[in-house]
Each structure stands twice: as C-alpha cells, then as structure tokens.
Amino acid sequence: MSRIPAVVLDGTVLTVEQVVAVARHGASVTVSEQVRESMAATRAVIEDLADDTRPHYGVSTGFGALARRHIPTERRAQLQLSLVRSHAAGSGPEVETEVVRALQLLRLATLATGRTGARPVVAETYAAMLDARLTPVVHEYGSLGCSGDLAPLAHVALAALGEGQVRDADGALRPAGAALAEAGIDPLVLAEKEGLALINGTDGMLGQLCLALHDLRRLMAAADVAAALSVEALLGSDAPFAADLVALRPHPGQGVSAANLRRMVAGSPLMASHRAVHDDGTPVCTRVQDAYSLRCAPQVHGAARDTVDHAAAVAARELAAAIDNPVVTVDGRVESNGNFHGAPVAYALDFLAIAVADVAGISERRTDRFLDVARNEGLPPFLADDPGVDSGHMIAQYTAAGIVSELKRLAAPASVDSIPSSAMQEDHVSMGWAAARKLRRGVDGLGRVLAIEILTATRALDLRGTETVPAAGTAAVRDLVRSHVAGPGPDRYLAPEIEAVVRLVTDGAVVDAAAAAVGEIG
Predict the structure, then answer these.
(1) What's 281-323 look like in SS3?
(2) How many angstroms separate the CA atoms of 109 and 338, rounded?
C-alpha cells in the first residue's frame, strides 16, 4: 500500500482531499518554517498588549457575557486555562475518530494562518498529536455552532494541556497526560489569548462537511450505477436519457447523471429485446413512458450533484478562512468580529441532508418496483425462488424503507433553530454541529439504500435468464456483486449479503467496476 503524502501547512489552503487524508487515513502533518515565522510575528502583537490599559476581548477581558470584566495581568494565563477547562463540557457518546482528527487539523490550519496570535508551539503540539494518532475524546453534545464548536474544540485543547482523555493509535482510552508523555510531547502551557484561539471556530462542522463531500461524490456515482441496473432489469427505456433531451434543461448535474446512465446501458441486448423498429429502420423502445423513479433518475440525481457542488464551494471558502475572535489583522490590529458564526456551513449541511434523503427515496422506489408482480415486468413476486415458501427481497425493501423514513426526518433543517446562550450575549446560534451530525447519519443511510437497490437489481438481472444478457457496464457490476454474494436461490440469511454490498458501494468498488467496463463514471 502506497504511503499517504504528508500534509504541509505552508500558507496554502487545505483541500477536502487533504482533510480526508489526515482525518481518515492518518496522513502526517508538518508545520513549515514560514508558518512558524508568521505565527511568531502576530504573537508579538498580542504580547505588546500586555500593558495596554484598553480592554481587548479574550486577552484582558472575560468571555461571552463576561466580556466587560477586566482581567489583571497576573491572572491572564489562568484565564486561558479556566476557559478550556470550563468549556470542555461535552456530554453523550464519543464522536468518531475521523471527525475529531478533522476538527483538530482544521483548528491547526487556522492557527497556521497567523491571524490568531497563538505561538508556534501551539501549532506544533497539535501537529505532533495528529502524527502520534492521539485522538482527544470529544462528545456528541456541546456545540451550538456559534462562537464556533466550543465544547468539541475545548476537549481537544484540554488534551493538548495534558488533561482529559485520548484514544491512542490502538484505540485504547488513556489519560491525556500519560499518552502525551509516552509520545514525547510536552503538554501546552497556555499564554494570553491562546485558549480562546483553540476553541473559536467552525472546525467541527466543517470537518464533517469535508468528510461528507468526499463520500457523497462516490455515492452520487453509485446512485447512477444503481439506477442503470434498475432501468435495464425492469425493461425500462433509455430514450429519456438522450443528450439532446437532457440539454433542453441545462443543469450540469443532470447532464452528468444522464451521460452515466447512457454509458451503463449502452449496447444492452436486454434493452434491445423490447425495442421495435420503425419503417425507416430506426429502433424505438416500446415503452412509451416509464415510471418517474426510472425516467427522472437524471433529474433527481443531477439536482443532488449540483447541491454537492454548491456545498463544496462553501467548504472551499471556509477552508480558506481564518476564524477566531478577536483576530490579528494583516496590518496588526486586534479586532472582534462575527466570523465564527456557523450559518454558511450549517445551511450547506442542511441542504445536503435534503438531497441525500431524496436520492435515497427514489432508489427505494426503484427497489420496490422489482418486488411487485404488477410492476416488475414478469419477474417472480419479491424475486423469490419459491414465492410463498420464500420471501426473497421482501424485507430488504422494508429495511430500505425504514432508512428512507429516517433520512426524511433528518432532512428537517437544524439551522432554522436557535437557542440563546451566555446570558443572551450569544442570542443567535447556527446549530451547525447538529446539522453535521445528522448529515453523517444520512450519508451512511444513503449508502445502505443504494446497496439494497444494487443487490435487488442484480438478482433481477439474473432472473431474466441468459437469453438476453445485460450491457457491459451493468454486467460488470453484477459480476462484482456475484463475487461476494451468491445468485438467486432459496432464501438465505440476507443481512450479511446486504452488508457485503454496502461495503462495495462505500469503498468505491461498484463505481470502479462500472468504470473499468464503460469508462469514467463522473
């Protein structure tokens, strides 16, 4: 297995792919000398404020509703330590390792912009923890998505101080101090403003957006593959996917999805078996109009693709941001601001949850058509071997339906809610962390619903018999599935077969098999 390239923080903007590489695959992180010099220069601005009689938020004042309380010089280091300890107030189950690593990397990236006023050692400590695979324990609840993802980020900062708990590289739960010592990492001792710099950002919700975008690119392609399998196995028509028809409504995602469907079923003998021939020799499908779940697949999948592109644009802008409050400006001012508010990211996360639910919904409708003898074009009821004795895929569809119902609930936006906090100082919040958490659940559900459709459609293709074979693209996917799951026969324990295809969908094997047969699946 090739080594994952290191991510070097050198003043350039991180990409989604780099976030995924560090968060999910353990890529190492390096802070460049240029970044260290930049951080040292802005740190000098903060240190020059030590004797300033004017109040500076987070340097010589309290936080939130306590922002008007002056903090004497000798208490300012304690102020930062108290901030981290008090804000590490999360509750509930542990958040996934990849999410914690993503948010830690993104906070490090903001430190590396030199706009927070933190010392270089703070960034170096975060990079060392990432490289040692020491993952602070972060909890499900604690962020309102305004003033940043406060509690999640505070738990990470607490671990860097040698307090709280971490998971080590083997996943064992360890006291943070002992784990740092074993890795040769000195615990941080915070100076003025550094506690605030470590907890004030949208890094948790942004990290989860980056991970979701990576996964959804793959799942959108898998949705097109699944739809092509269903159109072919249900004896549907590819005529509505014609390039000239699709171009009449020039949404870019729709065009990509339609092209994928055309490639997948191109040259299909099975589809040719239900075409008539005009007097002029032109083939025409005998299906006048298929059901919407077949005919409108490019429109629905394409709209979801365009939503992913919109969210990716939001993520790119957020990855280029330096989010802290206050910030050290390029010309050396220390200014309060509202850039920590998570609304831009929260809206994108909520929008994606809607698209995820709808793509899963149309997939489940295609699965259901296979099981109903009134709609499945001559296939046995529920695709059962001996209907009545066998139930076939009856309950697999129940599973898909249950997931889709859950995804519809998760599509209700989190970002329209706001619960005032901090004695009404923070009187409007984004709930972006909540939007991110439900999107992660939605992405998982979509992969499962698509897997059930693919499992069902490949079974239907086999039940069509060998007289009319599928297209090259769909046959390649069918053959991949058959290498992990047996073909039609009496009822078997179905859950492991579903999980096997879920893995093929989520790890990209389904799309790779299709692309190897027909070219790129965009």
Answers:
(1) CCEEECCCCCCHHHHCHHHHHHHHHHHHHHHHHHHHHHHCCCC
(2) 19
Please report which helix (H) or strand (E) contains residue 381, including its range: none
Angle in degrees, CA 215, 220, 224, rounded to 5: 145
How far is the C-alpha of 376 from the C-alpha of 336, rounded, in Å? 63
Any idea which residue has 């309380």 for tokens?
Answer: 69
Q: Are strands 29-31 and 7-9 parallel, antiparallel or unpaired?
A: parallel
In whole angstroms, what is the distance from residue 431 CA to residue 145 CA?
5
Is the CB of residue 441 less than 8 Å from the CB of residue 404?
no
* Claim: this prediction has a pTM higher than 0.90: yes
Residue ranges in the chain modelled with pLDDT below 70: 1-2, 50-53, 56-58, 60, 62-68, 275-288
The per-residue DSSP string of 202-269 comes to SHHHHHHHHHHHHHHHHHHHHHHHHHHHHHHHTT--SGGG-HHHHHTS--HHHHHHHHHHHHHHTT-H
Q: CA 507 → CA 168, 222, 287, distances in Å?
A: 25, 11, 35
> Which one of 57, 141, 347, 493 is the catalytic residue?
57
- For 234-248, the pLDDT digits (tens) are 999 999 999 999 999
pLDDT at residue 1, as a whole number? 37
Confirm if 403 and 458 have CB atoms less than 8 A apart. no
Task: Give phi and psi for 268, each to the nearest 5.
Answer: -70, 120
- Predicted confidence at residue 62, as pLDDT, reads 64
SS3 content of the chain, % helix, strand, coil (to 5): 55, 5, 35
Residue 425: the pLDDT is 75
CB 201 within 8 A of CB 323: yes
Note if 398 is an active site residue. no
Q: Give Cα 139 to chain centroid, integer Å.
A: 18
Beta strands 165-167 and 173-175: pairing type? Answer: antiparallel
The alpha-helical segments, DSSP class H, found in 112-237 are 120-131, 150-160, 176-182, 194-199, 203-233
Closest CA relative to residue 285, chosen from 228, 242, 237: 237
Let me know: does 361 contact 446? Beta carbons within 8 Å: no
Distance CA 205, CA 148 (A): 9
Phi/psi for 377 (5° steps) reads: 60, 50
β-pair partners for 9: 31
- 327-328/334-335 β-pairing: antiparallel
pLDDT at 156: 98
Those residues whose C-beta lies under 8 Å from the C-beta of residue 414, and which sit 6 or more positions away, are 346, 349, 350, 431, 432, 434, 435, 438
Domain annotation for the chain: domains and CATH numbers: 7-201 (1.10.275.10), 209-278+285-322+352-417+429-518 (1.20.200.10)
Say how far apart CA 110 and CA 133 lie, in whole Å. 20
CA diameter of the chain? 94
